[in-house]
Structure formats: structure tokens, C-alpha cells
Amino acid sequence: MKMRIFFVFTLIIVAAFFAGCGLELTPATTTTLPTTTTIDFNLYTVDADSPVGQYTSIKVDSNNKAHISYYDVKNGRLKYARGNASGWETFTVDNSGVNGKYTSLAFNASQLPRISYYDESNGHLKYASYDSSAWQTFTVDNSSTVGQYTSLAIGGDNKAYISYYDLPNTNLKFATGEGNSWSIYVAESPNTVGQYSSLALDNNNKAHISFYDSTFSTLRYVTGESNNWNSYLIDNRGFVGKFSSLAIDHNKIVHISYYDETNGDLKYASGESDSWTSATLDSAGIVGQYSALALDSNGKVHISYYDSNNNRLKYATNRSGTWQTYVVDSSGITGEYTSIALNSQNKVYISYYNETAGTLKCAIEK
Questions:
Q1: Which of 113, 120, 235, 269 could form a disulfide with 219 if both were Cys (CB 3.0 to 4.6 A apart)?
Q2: Residues near 242 by Cβ (< 8 Å), separated by ≥ 6?
Q3: Contacts of residue 95, Cβ cutoff 8 Å, sequence gap at least 6
Q4: Sign of dihedral through CA atoms 151, 154, 155, 157?
Q5: CATH no. for residue 226?
């Protein structure tokens, strides 16, 4: 009886604390019980110039060729790879100082790759574009220590849209433009916000961004453009919101995967504006770091993530109608820095880092 009274009293104190901070406790989340099994993937070593392959970002073109941006740890450079089962090519994109962390890759209308990334030497946000024959690099924001946690999308206007973290001001920032012409805005400023940002655009080029609020250890979301933004609390049940990854479907429903640090679980939220539901997808050990989310042509959800208990790459999806989780690669310490994409046949491609070998790898569903 004493323990029960103490527990109730503790809940009252916690609720009072959040109320005083202007935060509402979100509705209780549901916990799914997925089936963990294996799935057939072909596993490829893309770049073996060890150590190489952190901060990956992947997209797949109409010819089923993967395009991956990533960080060359050994040389402190931004690199890019393209290929498939027929073979892989790797390129150095930017070798001007130490740069290439926090990469995010997207295609323009001609399926030419663009990459946002962090210039660590100068503390700037940078952007690289490929014109079929060569890469060009540009400084987007030259303020001090900005450009970590970048996320890139290309709009219907063929302009780049980038969310990123402003460390000195602890803000979530947003840039749009191309080449040497950029407009920069603050998307969210109260508290320490903007880490683990993930951005997607709807059909009207309106931005949707998930991010971590480290002041309150919560998952938040903003939507808007230029200087007009609406901000929403998605989940504040424990320490949640790191490693967020966002996609938006054809009905403008937003889907977010993220890490529940309190319980060591993979979580998933979906909704719009101030109406959201969330669920725990995998609670087997400490799982859910480095989560990456993509939607297939049917609106089904696909998530890659790291199982740090077993040092392996895992994958979760609801494409069968219920959630299932799969082990993709368990060779050594592998599965950090994941990114996920699908081809036109809804086959899954996952880029990731193998820490044991220090290599960039790619898993392609058979």
C-alpha cells in the first residue's frame, strides 16, 4: 500500500512539473508485439578504405542504382558512392578541410544528387551539387558552428530545403535556395532545439520537420515555411526523440521513427498538427538508435535501426498489415548510421556502417 501511494504521489509531482513548464503529458503509447525473423538481403561492401562510412544517406534512382553520401573518417572528407549488385563507384566530393559529417542526400528533378553536410573545419553548413560531370560545393550558412544534424529535401521548384542545428543559439534553422543564393530562417527557437532534425516537403513545398528538444528530452515537430511556423509536441513520455526520421504520405499524414532512451526502445508516431498516435515497435534489448524511415508507394512504413545489445542492423515494417522486425546483418559490430530508401518495386535498400571492419555497407532486399 505504501508503495502504491508513493507511486501515485510521484505521478502527481511529475504532472505538476510538466504543467509548470507549459507542456502537456501525451496520451499513453501502445506497445506492439512484432515477430522477429530473418529476411533475404544481399549485403555489399561499398567502400573498404577503412575507416569510412559514417553519417550515411541513401536514395535509389529509377534504374535501381543506389546513391549514398557518407563521411570518410580516415581522411575527414565528404564522399559519395553509387552502384548496385553490378558494382560500386566511390568519389571524394569535398576535401577542403575536415567536412562531411551529418550528410543528407536528395535528387533533383533530373535525378542528380545533392548533399547537405557539416563543414567541421569552419563550423559552416555546406551543400554539394552534381551536374552529370563534376561536383560543386557551396557554403549555405557561414555563421559560427551551424550545420550539424542536416536534413535535405528538393522541392517541386527544384530548390533545396535544409533543416539543421545552430549550436551557439541552440535553434532549429531552415535554409532554402540553390548554388550561392540562400534564404535562412529560424524554424524553432525556445529551449535547446534542433538536434536530430529530419525534413520532408508536401506537395505545396511546405516543410515538415521532426527534431529533439534537449531541454525537456522530448520529440517535437514543426511545419511551415519562411518565418511562419507551427510547433507541436509529439511525445514527452520519458527521454524520447533522438534519432528522429520523418516522411509524409500522399494524404499529408506525417510518420516519424525515433529512439526512446528511457526504455531503450524503437518508437513510431504518426499524425498531423496536434493529433498524433505513437507506438513502441521493438523493445527487445536496447534498440532504435540510428533509426531511418521511408514510405513505399502503398504508404507502408519501413524503418532501419541499430540493435546495440547485439551489435546488429535491424529493420521493421508494417507492409504485411502488422508490424514485423527483421535482422538484416549481424556480422561483427554493424548497423550504425543507417539510412533507408526503396526502389520503384518497393524493394528496400539500407546503407550503414560496419564498425568492426570500418567499412560502408549496403543491404539490398532480394
A1: 235
A2: 195, 196, 212, 258, 259, 261, 289
A3: 75, 77, 78
A4: positive
A5: 2.120.10.10
Q: Which helix (H) or strand (E) holds 8?
A: helix 2-20
Residue 156 phi, psi dihedral angles, 5° rounding = -65, -20
Q: Which among 88, 56, 89 has a CA at the least distance from the CA of 72?
A: 56
Range of the domain at 21: 2-365
Cβ 78 vs Cβ 93: under 8 Å: yes
Give the tens place of pLDDT for each residue, 173-220: 999 999 999 999 999 998 999 999 999 999 999 999 999 999 999 999
Q: Contact 252/246 with Cβ under 8 angstroms?
A: no
- Look at the chain and report how many structural domains it folds into: 1
Structure-block grid coordinates of residue 251: 494524404
Which residues 6+ apart lie within 8 Å of 67 measured at CB? 58, 59, 60, 61, 80, 81, 82, 105, 107, 113
Taking residue 82's Cβ as centre, other Cβ atoms within 10 Å add up to: 18
Cα–Cα distance, 155 to 140 (Å, whole number): 17
Is 193:220 a contact under the CB 8 Å cutoff?
A: yes
Q: Three cell numbers at 182?
A: 540562400
Q: What is the pLDDT of residues 284-305, one digit of tens each?
A: 999 999 999 999 999 999 999 9
Query: By C-alpha distance, which of 31, 2, 4, 3 is closest to 237?
Result: 31
pTM, full prediction: 0.91
Give CA angle at 199 (353, 186), nearest 5°: 120
DSSP 51-73: S--EEEEEEE-TTS-EEEEEEET
E-assigned strand segments in 249-320:
254-260, 265-272, 275-282, 287-295, 301-307, 312-317
- Round to whole Å and give the CA distance between 180 and 201: 22
